[in-house]
């Protein structure tokens, strides 16, 4: 089996060129979120005059729901049609996003932009995850996911800083969203001209993985959602993790603004969380290949709960900065490790679909964070919403501790077949 003249081989070193290219593409995916993270809540209140927290958070909910749906489509289509066509479709859908954000005459158009952004993120991020898992094989799966997620969320942080700086110097529109336009053009060029299909690598792994496992889409969805203990535990932890991210996206800029911080300071605080999250995954992804998955996820969710308590108790820049850093550390422990769990348990023949279903649940967390944050903040206040997220994170940690088994290939027991 070969592509061109060279036989296919699995491994990070053996596929370093394509792997590095996919890391760059995923950084551009993350940049599309970062360009708006610090700016849109301020745009909602200062340009469109929105005041109700639940209404302001509609754009986060719209993004999360559409991204979750796109994740499922990405997993199914990447198994059926190949990875690269799905990646290209995702970037084509990104083209209108920065243009709509620049010139939207009403908040409804901002929501439309976030629907398209959710489709872009679900198709492109899911596909780069599956492609990297295809390339590296089982031995370095955690490291591969750490590098992937570090690139994506590191770019969220850098773009958030850049967008905040541009907004402070040139206004909330259109300057910050020129970043997204540039990201889209570069990503389309790289994905169409240089990225290669990786589905044959998955088939190569199948050849050494035993007989085919022809599960139906319904069976896979049930296993990942509730039936298979490790997969289902990963799905709920992923949902809660992104509930926290969705809450931070919609609520933190408004919370930080209560201390009369300027846009640059708010942008810095917003960037700290994904910056630590992104950089930390350079260590935590590979660490999970050595020490296992379960305990890292349990500790990571508990650390997130503690970080949210710090943020709720603080009332100024220093305390919020420490809380954001700790929140990033907790997320770094969890994020690549959860994806590695899915890769550990799922057979290569249905891995794309398993990743898609997991990411459906994980990214519904954006919508859950928007709803929980908006409803609780409207009923009580912004701080009460942060306390609520802390409690939910602690419960999630307990679920992982009780239900998940260790999935790392060196230590795992044989998972149920469903």
UniProtKB/TrEMBL annotation:
Residues in Major facilitator superfamily (MFS) profile domain copies: 15-408
Transmembrane stretches, start-end: 16-33, 53-74, 86-104, 110-131, 143-163, 175-195, 239-257, 263-284, 296-314, 320-343, 364-380, 386-405
Keyword hit for Translocase: no
Membrane topology: Multi-pass membrane protein
Subcellular location: Cell membrane
InterPro entries for the chain: MFS, MFS_dom, MFS_trans_sf, MFS_Transporters, Sugar_transporter_CS
Gene3D superfamilies cross-referenced by the UniProt entry: MFS general substrate transporter like domains (1.20.1250.20)
Keywords, in A-Z order: Cell membrane, Membrane, Transmembrane, Transmembrane helix, Transport
Name of the protein: MFS family permease
């Amino acid at each position: 089996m070969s592509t061109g003249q060279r036989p296919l081989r699995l491994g990070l070193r053996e596929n370093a060129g394509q792997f590095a290219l996919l890391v760059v593409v995923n950084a551009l995916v993350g940049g599309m979120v970062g360009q708006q993270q610090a700016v849109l809540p301020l745009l909602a209140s200062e340009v469109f005059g929105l005041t109700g927290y639940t209404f302001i958070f509609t754009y986060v909910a719209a993004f999360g729901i559409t991204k979750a749906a796109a994740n499922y489509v990405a997993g199914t289509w990447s198994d059926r049609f190949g990875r690269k066509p799905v990646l290209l479709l995702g970037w084509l859908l990104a083209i209108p996003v920065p243009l709509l954000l620049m010139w939207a005459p009403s908040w409804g158009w901002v929501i439309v932009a976030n629907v398209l952004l959710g489709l872009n993120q679900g198709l492109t991020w899911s596909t780069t995850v599956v492609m990297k898992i295809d390339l590296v094989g089982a031995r370095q799966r955690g490291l591969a996911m750490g590098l992937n997620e570090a690139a994506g969320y590191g770019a969220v942080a850098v773009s958030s800083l850049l967008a905040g700086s541009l907004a402070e110097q040139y206004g909330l529109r259109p300057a910050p969203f020129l970043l997204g336009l540039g990201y889209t053009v570069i990503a389309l060029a790289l994905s169409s001209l240089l990225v290669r299909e990786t589905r044959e690598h998955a088939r190569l792994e199948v050849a050494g993985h035993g007989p085919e496992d022809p599960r139906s889409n319904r069976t896979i969805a049930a296993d990942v959602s509730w039936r298979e203990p490790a997969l289902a535990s990963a799905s709920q932890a992923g949902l809660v993790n992104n509930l926290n991210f969705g809450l931070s996206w919609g609520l933190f800029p408004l919370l930080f603004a209560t201390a009369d911080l300027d846009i640059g300071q708010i942008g810095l605080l917003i960037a700290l969380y994904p910056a630590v999250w992104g950089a930390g995954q350079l260590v935590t992804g590979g660490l999970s290949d050595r020490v296992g998955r379960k305990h890292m996820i349990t500790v990571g969710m508990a650390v997130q709960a503690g970080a949210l308590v710090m943020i709720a108790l603080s009332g100024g820049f220093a305390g919020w900065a420490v809380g954001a850093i700790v929140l990033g550390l907790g997320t770094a422990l969890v994020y690549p490790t959860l994806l590695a769990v899915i890769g550990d348990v799922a057979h290569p023949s249905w891995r794309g679909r398993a990743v898609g279903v997991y990411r459906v649940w994980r990214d519904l967390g954006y919508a859950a964070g928007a709803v929980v944050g908006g409803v609780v903040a409207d009923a009580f206040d912004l701080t009460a919403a942060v306390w609520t997220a802390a409690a939910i994170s602690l419960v999630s940690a307990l679920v992982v501790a009780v239900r998940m088994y260790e999935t790392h290939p060196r230590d795992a027991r044989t998972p149920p077949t469903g």
